[in-house]
Amino acid sequence: MTKRILIICRKPPYGSSLGREALDIALASSVFDQSLSILFTGEGVWQLHKGQKGQQVDQKGYDKLLSAFPLYEINDLYVDAKSIEQRQLTQDDFVVDTQTLNSDEVKQLMAEHDVLLNF
Amino acid sequence: MKFSLLILGSPYSDQSVSTALRFAKSLLGKGHELYRVFFYHDGVHCGNQLTTPPQDEQNLPEQWAELAKAHQVDMVVCIASALRRGILNDSEADRHEKGTGNLKSGFDISGLGQLVEASIVSDRVITFGS
After folding, report:
1. Cβ separation of A3 and B119 shorter than 8 Å?
2. What CATH number is attached to the domain comprising A69?
3. What is the pLDDT of residues B76-96, one digit of tens each?
4. Which of the four pLDDT bands, split at 50, 70 and 90, describes residue A33?
5. N or C: fewer beta carbons within 10 Å in chain B?
6. Partner A contacted by B5 (CB < 8 A)
7. B10-44 burial, b if ≥16 CB within 10 A, otherwise e?
8. Mean pLDDT over residues A55-60, rounded?
């Protein structure tokens, strides 16, 4: 049985552990050979930001973890257009390639998936 | 319908744990199946057998354990979340030389694969907390 799983990341990095724990689920999912996508929205888009220095707050950086995603064949990464526009971010600010979706496309993405895990 | 629950909230700090418990009882009462309850993030505190609320308040770990026993529900605390938060079963306690474990009977400690597998097998996965 194959299910399409969408992990929705809404939390900023470092302020809570939920962001990292959401990405840990992505890594765990990769061994199950399921279709996996990740949507970064709201403050969650900061997880993608280049040049993080997590060690300054005694944390592992998200950038290293995200950079490893292609090795796990996790390539379907999406960002909400409005969230990055509001924060004056662009694709160039991110450590990995993502696809930018408008609000209708976000709705469609959610509708296309069987399981939504919301963090 | 086959349900699994993902619990992220901390008992006594976050109402979501109590809501999840009532949701679980309700769905079982309606004849649905509860395949697995997966405790992740601060939700792992639900498995702490040392939890000692005042006698006139609900005992959430006890109530989860009773529900699991009555309906043979698989209840799993995530090992990565649990160890960081000091929730250990006896074998993990031995392995890490901590003297004693504190995982309540009725809960198992296992990996994130159990959440992914539950997501694949269940018709619905409902998240509680955060």
Report:
1. yes
2. 3.40.1260.10
3. 999 999 999 999 999 999 999
4. confident
5. N
6. no
7. bbeebebbbebbebbeebbeeeeebbbbbbbbbbb
8. 91
Interface of B with A in 6-35 (CB under 8 A): 6, 8
- The whole-number pLDDT of residue A64 equals 86
Catalytic residue among B6, B8, B77, B78: B78
Q: How confident is the model at residue A83 (pLDDT cuts 50, 70, 90)?
A: very high
Residue B55 Cα, gap to closest chain A Cα (Å): 32
Split into its structural domains, chain A has a count of: 1
Report residue B56's pLDDT band, with 50, 70 and 90 as the boundaries: very high
Domain count, chain B: 1
Write out residues 78-117 of A within 8 Å (CB-CB) of B: 115, 117
State the residue range of the domain holding B67: 2-128
pTM of the model: 0.94
Chain A hits for B8, CB-CB cut-off 8 Å, are: 18, 119
Q: ipTM, 2 decimals?
A: 0.91
| Residue B46 bears catalytic tag | no
Contacts of A117 in chain B (CB under 8 A): 6, 119, 125, 127
Angle, CA B22 vertex, CA B87 and CA A17 arms, to 5°: 40
Please indicate if any CB of chain B lies within 8 Å of the CB of A32. yes
> What CATH number does residue B86 fall under?
3.40.1260.10
Q: What is the dihedral of CA B6, B130, A119, B65, to 10 degrees?
A: -10
